[in-house]
């Protein structure tokens, strides 16, 4: 993936299988966010392909990719601030429903039915992520940790097969990080594959069976947490970074 | 909808007042202002959908208003079609105009979108002035027939009122309906963050187009109603001055709210007329009013009640 003269991702190849969680780590600027944006359709790769179970996603728009079962969260939180938590999650159900404007005229029953279905579904997700008490709050008024959970809840509402989490633990305290770890565990139990980009090493080492390390847009190491810990290449990449 | 008893009673009272309004209002002049308030409410409600709820700077509303008016007028005067055919035709034609206008606007955002839509509005206005064979140019179209309803010709403001009232109320209710649905949420999602909206499976280009079409339809409806009310239209009424008035109404009333358009239309229409007493100073004070309200009450007059309450509580 090239931006003008800068090669952000250089012949990077990653695979993620169903039900597994792959950790992606690397110093800032190593290309993690770029990778996310390429995979989710916000950037179009100059070379190479993005494939989901035989289907080529490379040329698709982000919303089409989400329809096919790939969801993401954002590093800097991208909630719909002037909507309530419930509404935020209900938006997540958009790709799984199809009531459009025209249905108002020739099939209003369907509009009502789908609306009810979306509301119930969203409430269920909120319950699972312990967000019920906030359902009527405006997203912008929530504490940071809660906002992060809402972001995940919203992505879950799209019923993804693959979930890409972009630094979900950033800014969370120890207790919140533990809750996050539990949440991720529960998501994995549902059979959803996760690509986790994180700087919080303890979290990554705890929950990921496989980790991939990026530096300057290239894969410098891949393996189990133990292997990664020992790897010289990784230590070099992170020279100066403290393990938390 | 759970409504308290007092709420229900007040709605009934307001409803009755609205229905019997023409009997209280003796002056044709005032009746006409009221009718124009209703027409503007429809226009601004439409504008509110794309600008307030979808967050797009679409500045072609006055042009769509004009397309609606001209379509209806041309169909009525050239083809002698009944108002009841002209009205829906005007809405459809304007809706298509909205669709076509949206296409070049898809690739631009924010200020650039404002300029592009403004440019398109100017083009449309020029078309009204220059396509003389179609629109009779600057001379405008005269002798637009009034609608016939239940055997009666709605040729006075008093008689036209109820038609306007019903259509305006339906227009507002439709906005509310859209808002509380998947489509409405998609609009607001795009406003809040089109990136996140895309990530949630919302095709923001598609919804932009729909938003344009909806807004245009509202303006088209209002345009047709206007043409058959005042029975004479000319390009003057659909240019930049008109656009500025519409923007002012939207902002003063409260952008992104249901009641905003109504309030904006009411305050600015009556305000304009009542300030006539100031003669030379009329426009100065009018402009000042708009300026001050946008500066000090940017969320619109709708929020005044809440602000006063909050102020009283000392927060």
Question: Main attributes?
Answer:
A: 244 residues; 2 domains; six-stranded mixed sheet; two-stranded antiparallel ribbon; 10 helices; 10 strands; B: 315 residues; mainly alpha; ABC transporter involved in vitamin B12 uptake, BtuC; 74% helix
Textual characterization of the structure:
The complex is a heterodimer of chains A (244) and B (315). Chain A is α/β, with parallel strands linked by helices and 244 residues long. Chain A has 2 domains: 1-69 and 160-244, Rossmann fold (3-Layer(aba) Sandwich); 80-158, no CATH class. Chain A contains 10 helices and 10 strands. Chain A has helices at residues 32-39, 62-67, 85-92, 103-106, 108-128, 144-157, 174-189, 201-207, 225-230, 232-237, and strands at residues 2-3, 6-7, 21-25, 51-52, 55-56, 70-72, 162-166, 193-197, 210-215, 218-223. Chain A has a 6-stranded mixed β-sheet with strand order 6-7-8-3-9-10, sandwiched between helices. Chain A has a two-stranded antiparallel ribbon with strand order 1-2. In chain A, a hairpin with a 2-residue loop joins strand 1 (2-3) and strand 2 (6-7). Chain A is globular and about 65 Å long. The mean pLDDT of chain A is 86. Chain B has a two-stranded antiparallel ribbon with strand order 1-2. In chain B, 74% of the residues lie in helices and 1% in strands. Chain B starts with a helix and ends with a helix. Chain B is mostly helical and 315 residues long. In chain B, a hairpin with a 2-residue loop joins strand 1 (148-149) and strand 2. Chain B has 14 helices and 2 strands, in the order H-H-H-H-H-H-E-E-H-H-H-H-H-H-H-H. Chain B has a single domain, classed as ABC transporter involved in vitamin B12 uptake, BtuC. Chain B has helices at 5-24, 28-53, 61-78, 83-105, 110-130, 132-135, 157-179, 182-192, 194-199, 204-230, 240-253, 260-274, 282-296, 304-312; strands at 148-149, 152-153. The interface between A and B is medium-sized, with 37 and 24 residues.
């Amino acid at each position: 993936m090239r931006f003008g003269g800068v090669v952000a991702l250089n012949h990077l190849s990653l695979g993620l299988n169903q039900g597994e969680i792959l950790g992606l780590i690397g110093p800032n600027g190593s290309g993690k966010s770029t990778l996310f944006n390429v995979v989710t359709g916000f950037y179009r790769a100059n070379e190479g392909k993005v494939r989901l179970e035989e289907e080529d996603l490379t040329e698709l728009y982000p919303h089409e990719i989400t329809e096919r079962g790939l969801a993401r969260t954002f590093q800097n939180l991208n909630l719909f601030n002037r909507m309530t938590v419930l509404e935020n999650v209900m938006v997540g159900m958009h790709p799984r429903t199809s009531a459009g404007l025209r249905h108002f005229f020739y099939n209003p029953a369907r509009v009502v039915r789908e609306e009810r279905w979306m509301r119930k579904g969203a409430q269920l997700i909120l319950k699972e992520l312990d967000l019920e008490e906030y359902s009527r709050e405006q997203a912008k008024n929530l504490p940071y940790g809660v906002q992060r959970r809402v972001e995940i809840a919203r992505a879950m509402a799209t019923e993804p097969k693959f979930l890409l989490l972009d630094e979900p633990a950033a800014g969370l305290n120890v207790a919140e990080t533990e809750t996050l770890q539990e949440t991720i565990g529960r998501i994995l139990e549902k059979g959803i594959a996760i690509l986790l980009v994180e700087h919080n090493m303890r979290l990554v080492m705890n929950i990921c069976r496989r980790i991939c390390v990026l530096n300057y847009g290239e894969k410098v190491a891949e393996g189990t947490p133990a292997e990664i810990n020992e790897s010289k290449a990784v230590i070099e990449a992170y020279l100066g970074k403290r393990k938390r | 909808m759970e409504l308290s008893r007092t709420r229900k009673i007040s709605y009934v009272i307001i409803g009755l007042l609205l229905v019997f309004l023409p009997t209280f209002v003796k002056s044709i002049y005032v009746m006409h202002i009221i009718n124009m308030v209703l027409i503007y409410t429809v226009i601004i409600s439409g504008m509110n959908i794309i600008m307030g709820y979808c967050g797009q700077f679409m500045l072609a509303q006055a042009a769509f208003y004009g397309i609606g008016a001209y379509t209806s007028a041309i169909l009525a005067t050239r083809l002698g079609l009944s108002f009841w055919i002209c009205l829906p035709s005007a809405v459809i034609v304007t809706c298509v105009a909205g669709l076509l206008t949206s296409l070049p606007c898809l690739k631009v955002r924010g200020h650039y979108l404002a300029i592009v839509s403004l440019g398109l509005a100017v083009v449309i206005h020029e078309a009204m002035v220059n396509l003389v064979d179609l629109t009779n140019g600057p001379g405008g179209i005269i002798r637009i027939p009034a609608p016939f309803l239940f055997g009666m010709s709605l040729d006075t403001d008093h008689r036209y009122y109820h038609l306007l009232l019903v259509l305006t109320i339906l227009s507002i209710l439709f906005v509310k309906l859209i808002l509380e649905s998947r489509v409405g949420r998609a609009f607001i999602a795009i406003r809040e963050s089109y990136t996140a909206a895309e990530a949630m499976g919302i095709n923001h280009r598609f919804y932009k187009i729909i938003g344009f079409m909806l807004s245009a339809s509202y303006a088209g409806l209002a345009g047709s109603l206007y043409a058959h009310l005042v029975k004479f239209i000319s390009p003057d009424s659909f240019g930049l001055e008109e656009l500025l008035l519409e923007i002012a109404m939207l902002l003063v009333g409260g952008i992104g709210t249901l009641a905003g358009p109504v309030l904006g239309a009411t305050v600015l229409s009556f305000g304009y007329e009542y300030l006539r007493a100031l003669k030379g100073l009329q426009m100065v004070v009018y402009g000042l009013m708009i300026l001050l309200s946008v500066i000090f009450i940017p969320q619109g007059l709708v929020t005044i009640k809440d602000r006063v309450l909050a102020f009283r509580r000392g927060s």
